[in-house]
Amino acid sequence: MNERLDLRFPADGSVLSIDGLELRSGERLVVFGPNGAGKSTLLRLLAGTLAGGPALEAAYLPQRPYLFRGSAGFNMGLGLSAEEAVRSRQLADRLGVGELLIYAASSLSGGEAQRVALARTLARPEPWVLLDEPLSAQDARDRMKVASVLIDGLGGRGAVIVTHDREEAAVLGDRMAVVVNGHLLQEGPVAEVFSLPLSDEVAAAVGIGNVIDGVVIEGEGPLNSLRAGGLTIWGLGDVPAGNPGRAVFGAESVTLFRGSDGAAGSARNRWVGQVTEVRQLGRLVEIVIDAGVRVVALVTPGSQEVLQLQPGAGVTATVKAAAVRVNPT
To answer: Which phi-psi region, left, alpha or beta, contains residue 222 (left: φ > 0; alpha: ψ -120 to 50)?
Structure first.
């Protein structure tokens, strides 16, 4: 199913009023925005738990999944066929909660309960999966592992995933819809929305960032190197070599120097490129660079003037490896 949806809640659209939200089969759409933006309302309309939505044929995981009395395994198997129950147990093992299924659901931590509920949701057969903040209860050390299992568990199905976390959006999404105050402000590929926000309001909601896909070449201690286009990007990560990865770093972490020689410093990432676009965003200036792949930097108007950063200018961009995260995709 590929279609555009108009969503209103209530009927007058006073809480949520969205025109032309695009859903594409087999793609993961991240709905991103601040708390209170209407993201969960949007998801509940799609799930049919609020009247007035299209009610997709979908498996739905709310932000705070409810577990009944009984064991975690009993809760995980509710509503599943025998084949689906086997699948949910496989997912539970991969999510690190397989050994906890014999214990009372009430004894689980918030993160453990969320992973049990996620295993159940991903095991369901519906063609769409709706997930509301599916990583919100996870510790930082577990978040990317859970994200990797989540993506694999979708099995190519379409998904709508709500989050307010930039890194989660970059890892989980193919496309991104920015919702603020109940309105859809921008929708497009994740990397495009982060690096080229259409307005100051979108920039304020998502920040300005770089999201670059490639293949992990090697690891060195806590670092991964990722090859993307003509660039090698070093960042914090533990993705095995040969696997696809996604480098994520903020535009504010990019330092620019005029010319191709760069400058002395400790930054491990150093790329030569050419300015292709300059845009004013509030009190800062967004500089888009072609360095084999698109890299975006944020500078002050004073820095732009001193460095003479205009389209066609040659520059060197540097980023410290500690400012980059390399995640699985």
So the answer is: alpha
Q: SS3 sequence, 151-210? A: HHHHCCCEEEEEECCHHHHHHHCCEEEEEECCEEEEEEEHHHHHHCCCCHHHHHHHCCEE
Would you list the DSSP string of 6-34? Answer: EEEESTT-SSEEEEEEEEETT-EEEEE--
Q: Is the whole model's pTM more than 0.90, yes or no?
A: no
Name the H helices within the chain.
39-47, 72-77, 82-94, 110-123, 140-154, 166-172, 190-195, 200-206, 301-307
Whose tokens are 């209170």? That residue is 36
Note the pLDDT tens digit of each residue in 1-15. 678 999 999 999 999
Residue 295: strand pairing partners: 289
Instruction: Give the chain's end-to-end CA distance (angstroms, integer).
Output: 23
Please choose, from the candidates 284, 281, 288, the residue with its C-alpha nearest in 3D space to the C-alpha of residue 313: 288
Rounded Cα distance between 316 and 116, Å, is 47
Helix (H, G, I), strand (E, B) or coil at 96: coil
Closest CA relative to residue 146, chosen from 173, 120, 185, 119: 119
The token duo for 223 is 């670092």
Q: How many CB atoms lie within 10 A of CB 7?
A: 22
Q: Is the pLDDT score of 264 beyond 60?
A: no
Q: Are 28 and 168 in contact (CB under 8 A)?
A: no
Which residues contact residue 142 at a Cβ distance below 8 angstroms, ignoring those fewer than 6 apart?
A: 96, 111
Which single residue is written with the structure tokens 């190519």?
Answer: 156
Determine the number of helices (DSSP H) and then strands (DSSP E) in the chain. 9, 18
Q: Which two tokens stand for residue 27?
A: 């793609």
- Domains located in the chain, CATH noted: 2-202 (3.40.50.300), 211-328 (2.40.50.100)
Identify the DSSP state of 239: P
d(CA 98, CA 100): 5
- Greatest mean pLDDT among 84-93, 202-211, 255-264, 281-290 lies in 84-93
